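tool=predict chain=A
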Amino acid sequence: MMRVRTVATVGFLVAAGGVLQGCALRHTSEARTYVLDAMSPSASSEKREGSPVAVVGVDKVTVPGWIDRPQITSRSAGGEVVTDEYARWGEPISRGIQRVLAENLAGLLADRRLVSAPYPPGIDPDQRVLVAISEAARQADGSVLVEARWSVVAPGGKVLASGRSSQRTPGGAAAAGGIVAGLNQALAGLSREIAEGLPR
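tool=predict ok
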């Protein structure tokens, strides 16, 4: 009997230790959540008084499937896509990029009114900004690269302006926070290119 009790006691302690260890692992592996940020107000233009000269709409941004996921993604050597299970987006990445571009353009274009799709009832933008992202991730060298095609179209679909942008921030973005900061910086550069290309 004593022998059985000893084994049972040891088994209980091992099981209890496993539960505690599991709790500790879950606690230390808790996922962090990030969102993209627009440029600071000091980096944008001052708003002008009076009615806006035009309403500019930012359509839904398209991103590749390997980027469009909850986890923050990176590139490694050989084209491998690496996902960080413990660093996640607080909103769909396509929506986050659209939001940041609209906020950045609102600051850069002091004489325009900026709206984001889906547009409010009764709002028909004079110009619509279409953006297709092909790359938005940390690269193997530690830099953060954003590549995109953009165009500005009139209500009838006529292309008023278009361009291809490649924005790369310096290396050193090792952790998720650095990747997000690099994306913010790259999207600021993309926003400036679009703002400069918009018809006046």
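Residues 1-16, 22-27 have pLDDT under 50 and may be disordered. The chain is about 30% helix and 30% strand.
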